[in-house]
Structures are given as structure tokens and as C-alpha cells.
Amino acid sequence: MRPPPHLAAAHSAAAAPSAAGSHAGPSRRRPRHRGATTTMSAAVTCCRFAALACLLAAGAATALLTFSLPASPISASATTRADFAGKMSVTDRPPPMARHLSAPPARATPPPLGVRRRKREPSYWRMAPEEALRYAKREIRDAEPVIDDPDLYAPLFKNVSQFKRSYELMERILKVYIYQDGRRPIFHTPPLSGIYASEGWFMKLLKESRRHAVADPTKAHLFYLPYSSQQLRLTLYVPDSHDLRPLSVYLRNFVRGLANKYPFWNRTRGADHFLVACHDWGPYTATAHRELRKNTIMALCNADSSEGIFTPGKDVSLPETTIRTPKRPLRYVGGLPVSRRSILAFFAGNVHGRVRPELLKHWGDGQDADMRVYGLLPNRVSRRMSYIQHMKNSRFCLCPMGFEVNSPRIVEAFYYECVPVIIADNFVLPLSEVLDWSAFAVVVAEKDIPDLKRILEGIPLRRYVAMHGCVKRLQKHFLWHARPIKYDLFHMILHSIWLSRVNQVEIDG
């Protein structure tokens, strides 16, 4: 057996002197054949390259099988597999390819109970607007039940599953084109404070929306007429004239100009257009244009179904919100727990219209200590407890209509976690397309004002506690945010307008 080359070289060098001394004759060592040595070295090199190529090919095959074959079911933890692999000797382990080939194919793991498998959504941006609306209507109709959603409290909604699916589709699909026409301040000048601030905040936030506002009208599902009913009144109404026709004529001429300038109005006769108006006169500004009144989606605070202007199912009842400080719209929001609400019912405000005089006639001027009903809050009372403190300390907040059916006290009640009592016949309640008002409000007919205390005291404590809890959960849906968040008031209003448009389209089946 030959020694290794480095040991053989050292041995030869050490033995050379002694060999030269003992053998005086010619050397018996065989002569080296350089050609054979070179050939053998080349062969060894080729073998090494071939072995390396084989190793690389085996590694590539192993990697290919790893990514192409299905993963084995997770029946043991990674720690168990590692321990088992550590106990095996190198010779006992199967080769990499054999390990992958021996793995059984994995079975599809069913989704957890209560979680529906998300199906692949289509490319909405490739759909024509009408096609996308028809798709949305089918999806909403066939919405699968919502088992549990921490962001939505099911008792607040008529059908929480359909609302959730409709809201999801609105977020992914809806594009709104905002007309840039119109003279300021009537157009593009949103009022952000006062009791008519809803129309202003909606206009402001929609203009700032990168998700929904679109510059290309051909991609739009809805077209927004960005006027303010409050600014229209301040600009054109002649005080004490009692003549609203100049306001409606102005809006009529604006719509006629759009119809002559653009093709969009004439395609649907205004059915895919909408306006948002919170002043009491908002409905009357649309009466001079037949298509505007009949076809256009109107989001109105004055949602009176008895006048023949507001059409339930097409139009949207807009919540009337009082914003005192536009930079801090959520100031004073919050209330007291049920145990600290010592007042049964509270109202204070101007006495006008047909309902409020009746309310004060039966319950005003301190006739009943449990029913705190006033005109304007007297100074002797406000020094001890302010208007907002009264609402926060009351179980029920009375919301009688004034000149018109709407009242900002409804949303104020939500802000201060007080159950609203709505006294306004023919009033279509805000966002009633999706909200179940029986869960968090009491509706009393105008003729039942004399029995108001008996009606309120007849509500069981358990029922009242549930209603109060619903009011607290509902509150977030009626809040304005400088930067809109999911399910806030801006999105709730926009969703109701979107839903009205979706319901217009016809689908098969």
C-alpha cells in the first residue's frame, strides 16, 4: 500500500543519501513516464468535475421536487421531527429525493368554523359602471351570514350580513365624479359648523377622498352636485319674502347647464346623480326641475314622506348634526352610566312648529319633576346644570320636530349616550335603509304626547339597559372625523347613497 504523497516525498528525501552510499552502481529506480502521469491527472480532474456535476444535478432535482410536490400534512411539530432526525444515523436517513417522494399528498384543510372561504374577487376596474353595479346587487342579495364581526353590532342593523357585504363592495367599487362647475359660495363652499354642518362635512370629506373621488367621469358610478342648501339660502333668499322659487330656479338652471355641457345627465335622466342638503328648505330647492325631483338621489335632513318630495327607497334621510367647533368635532362626546342618570326625560329649545307647544303644554314649567321640559333653558337652571349636562344625566332625550320633521337633538342624544324619543309623524328616520331604530330609540306618535311619561316608565329596566348599550355602540356610526375612518358617519351616508344607486339597476333572477 502506497503512503500518501506528502509522506512518500519526505521518505524519499530522507533515504536518498544512504542509497547513494550503499549502491555504487547505476540506480535501479524505474524511470518516470511523464506522459502517463499527465494523462492520469487529467482523468482525476475529469472525475472530480463529473462528481461535482452529479452533486449539482441531485441538488437541483431535490429543490424542484421540494417546490413542486404538495407539502405533507402537519401531523407532528417541527421539534418532534428535528429530534427524530437527530437520532437517525447518516446511513439510516433516506436520500433527499426518497424523502420527498415518500411524502403523501396533502388534503385541503377546511376553514375554521364560522369563517367563510374568501372567494376570488373580479377586477372591478375592468368592469363598466353598470356591470359593476349589477354584480354588486347580486352579491348583496346572496350575502352569506356574518357569524361574528367585532366592528359591527348585529342588533343595530336590519340585516348585518347584507350591510357588511354592501359596505365591502362600496369600498372596492364606488367611484364618484364631482362636477367642478358652479359659482361660489353656493357651490364648493361647505359650511362646517352649526346645525346644517352635515352637508358641509360630507362635501369636504368626499372632495378629499382618494378612494372614491375620481377625475375621469367615464369611470364614475355616481355624479355629485356639490351645492350647499344653506349657502343657497344665505345668498339668494330675500328675508321675510317667503318666496323660495328663486332658489329652486337657480338650481334648475345649473342642472340644465350640466345637461347641455356634458352627456352624463341625459344618459339616465339624472338617476345616477345625487345631492346632499341639510337645510329645512333643501327639498324645496329641487322642485323646479322635474327630472331632478323625480330621478336624482337626494340625501335630505328634512326627510318628510308626506310632502311628495322625499321618496323612500330612492332618497336618503340625512342625519342632522350640530358642530360647535369644526376643529374639534368630537368635543363633549360621551355620557354617564345608567346608574347615574337621575332624570327621566329632558328637552329644552325654541318653541315653534305644531309639536313643541303641545309638549310644553302637558309637561313644561316644572309640572313633573321627572320630566324636565323647557323652552329655552332658564338661567336659574343652566347655572346649576348646562344643556349638555342635562342630556348626559337623562335616561331619555326628547326630540320633537320643529318647523320640519328633522331635529339635531337625535344625533346629540347619541353623542351623550341618551336614548332618543322621536316625536315627528311622517319622519323617515336617518339611514333607516340599514339601521333598526327599534333597538336604540323610542318613537312616539304626536297624539300620544299626553301619555308620554306613562310610555317611558312602561319600558322595563332590562329593555332600557339594552337600548342604552345599543346607543353607545351606535355612537361611532354618527361621528365626523377630520380623516374618515371605517363605518363613521361619512361612510354611512355614502353607503346609503351607494345602496340607493345599486337598487336602481335590474338583474336577472
Automatic annotation (TrEMBL):
Cellular component GO terms, alphabetical: Golgi membrane
InterPro entries registered for this protein in UniProt: Exostosin (IPR004263), Exostosin_GT47 (IPR040911)
Domain spans labelled Exostosin GT47: 172-457
Top-level taxonomic group: Eukaryota
GO molecular function ontology, one term from the record: glycosyltransferase activity
Recorded topology in the membrane: Single-pass type II membrane protein
Residue spans of biased composition, Low complexity class: 7-25
Keyword hit for Glycosyltransferase: yes
Compositional bias (Basic residues): 26-35
Record localization: Golgi apparatus membrane
Keyword set includes Protein biosynthesis: no
Region Disordered, residue ranges: 1-37, 87-118
Keywords in alphabetical order: Glycosyltransferase, Golgi apparatus, Signal-anchor, Transferase, Transmembrane
Family: Belongs to the glycosyltransferase 47 family.
PANTHER family found in the cross-reference section: EXOSTOSIN FAMILY PROTEIN, EXOSTOSIN HEPARAN SULFATE GLYCOSYLTRANSFERASE -RELATED
Protein name: Exostosin GT47 domain-containing protein
